[in-house]
Amino acid sequence: MTTVLKVFFFRNLALITREMIQTEGDYIRSLRLVIDNYLPEMTKESVPHNLRGKRNIIFGNIEKIYYFHSQVFQEELRNCESNPFTAGRIFMEHAPEFYLYALYNKNKPKCDAILAESGKAFFQAKQLELQDKLDLASYLLKPVQRMAKYALLLKQLLQLCPEHVPEYSDLKAAVEMVKFQLRHGNDLLAMDCLRDCDVNLAEQGMLLRQQDFLVWQGRRKCVRRLFLFEELLVLSKAKLLPSGEEVYQYKSSIKTSELGLTENVGDSGAKFEVWFRKRMSGGTYTMQAPSLEIKRQWVTEMSRLLWKQAIRNRELKKVENHQMGMGGKPGLDLKPSKDNISDRLVSVSLANRGEGFLD
Fold first, then answer.
1. φ/ψ (deg, to 5) at 336
2. What is the pLDDT at residue 1?
């Protein structure tokens, strides 16, 4: 790298880091303004009747977000100024706290609806008192915008970070974590619209993705909303209620531990298959994603899940054999074998589902 390029590289690095740290302070001040000025309005006698008891719907978990950033995250972010590439590690160490944003985003549509219907005029008086150009709705959008800003700045750092340095993997993971939390709120909102589900979704691990797909079972084709959990793939059908609300009628589910995956099917590039060990009639389902990118994301996520399960199952088998005196010391072995995910056949029982999978 020439001297000119080095100067350009380090200047860009410093600019990105400085922007992340400086805007963090601005963001915290915006949250504090809401908490100090708008939250107390909800305790006044003049609160309209249809806003009473709606404090948590309007403001969500903004106080918890403020506490995390002002008391914990801001100081740690400042520490990465001397080594910008450590920002990825700092974000990943606080990945559980960033789940606050998924919950905030899940609540946001309800907040927007109440403000539009009843809250705008009431809170406008406080805005005029503060002589502020921004209204409450603009401030309540700040957490959503902040996460999008994190995603952008972390991506810029990742582009500057050499792939061979240890910090690269943390930065890459941080970018994916922030992007996940950005969409996870919408995913959780959609999950709340599932109806008549005969499995306990709270026991299926984290919801990873949800999306509409074209689904084929043999020659039968339909549209299904798929929900991918760590332990379960749920298929549902969109239904419009008389009230105008869209819900998702539960149709079927497949344990991910009993799932096989063919990553590419057909010539479109947007299709993949899920299948079962017992190649019975109707035992293979072809999924077509709305785009190549969405298909890639789903196949990557499902492949990762299957690999984790294959490794876990192999470890459990080794421990079981060891306890039965059938083998040596248990340990992790990833040598090529019939257990490799590319060769793995897994079973699922559809006896209780019948042929109504795509009804």
1. -55, 135
2. 59
